[in-house]
Amino acid sequence: MSLDGKAAIVTGAGRGLGLAYAQELARRGASVVVNDVDAEATADAVAAIQTSGGRAVAVVAPVGPTETAKELVSTAVEHFGRLDILVTNAGVLRDTVLWKMSDDDFDTVINVHLRGTFTTVREAVQHMRQAGEGGRIICVGSPTGQRGTFGQTNYAAAKAGIVGMVRTWALELARAGITANTVVPVAATAMTATVPYFAAAVRAEANGEPMPAFFRHDLGFGTADDVAGLVAFLGSDAAASVTGQVIGVGGDRLQIWTHPEAALTAYREGGWTYDALVDAWPSTFAGAAQSVGERFPRLPEEFEPVTS
């Protein structure tokens, strides 16, 4: 099953994961609007797709403003006559602990990730609903949005918010035949290259060597191309029944994340007063308390970062 005749938009597609998504969609037959803020990277991405026999055009603009969303959709319709797939991948980082995070640190990340996803999806589905041929919305999340990460208040809020929006959109768009899903990638990128834990995997990727099995299998950490197949699948007719899902992918691993459910339910006639909670928490509730943050296994000795 191919994507022949389909048209897609991929934001943040100048390099890294976004570029891999755009190239895979084009390989499968889709025409692609490549978006990024870096004009040179965007031009190179379009040229690479065209050189490989695909169709692509560029839109150099930051996501967030409604004007960018309108330009992306109008470009797809003008050049390709339609819009079937939207991948919201654009993002930035401004990492620091809560007490040092500035208003600008917070607002910049929220504007690009959360508002950028909202405005672009809103514009895309307005066109898709009017066209009446369904569509595919694929939003990029993060393990940080699922579990939290030290120093990433802004990023965690944005990525968790994206998941919440996607679940809502899956409900709202079902009658129009438009699916909405979240992809949670775990891959060697510029963002993960600075994490010492992944150094051996990132180094192997940079050197064109096979990534060690510990990373690919045990951690589910791989390359951008390992994620791109899922994005293309979710954009296809084969995934017409898949919606409202949060799907993690990396290396050799694919995961469907659960939606939040109550871990424990207990009742007390008259309600839960302060005194009742003091008495009951250790024996009734403490065992159901949830962990936070990701927990990685200890690195095998051969992959330990070299320190000077």
From TrEMBL:
GO terms for molecular function: oxidoreductase activity. It holds the Pfam family adh_short. Keywords: Oxidoreductase. This is 3-oxoacyl-[acyl-carrier protein] reductase. InterPro entries: KR_dom, NAD(P)-bd_dom_sf, Peroxisomal_Beta-Oxidation, Sc_DH/Rdtase_CS, SDR_fam. Residues 6-194 form the Ketoreductase domain. Belongs to the short-chain dehydrogenases/reductases (SDR) family. SMART domains: PKS_KR. It comes from Micromonospora violae. It comes from the Bacteria.
